[in-house]
Amino acid sequence: MSRAKGDVAEDRACAFLLENGFLIIERNFYSRFGEIDIIAIKDKVIHFVEVKSGLDYESAIQNITKTKLSRLIKTGYVYLKKNSIDAAFVYDALVVTPKDIELVENITL
After folding, report:
1. What's the alpha-carbon Rg for the chain, to the nearest Å?
2. What is the CATH number of domain 3-104?
3. Contact call for residues 60 and 54 (beta carbons, < 8 A)
């Protein structure tokens, strides 16, 4: 997928999160381990959000591999340490398709 399509999916994801009561803290946070697409907060819980887009849910969600999730988790810890944050946090996925957006909360290995 091109970077432009990815940016459109992330913009749609941010709009979805805002509409659902999240506050966007940061986008595209990088560490040596990888990138977190969106960092948001809702009800005092930090949400590290991986945005995946595709023509349908299945093709998008399959792109969250064990390796990708491991990098996401490591990068989340870097963000927390770098910003001296001691708060509850979860790792989520936002699946963006042409017709729908679905939040998959608390993804794990």
Report:
1. 13
2. 3.40.1350.10
3. yes
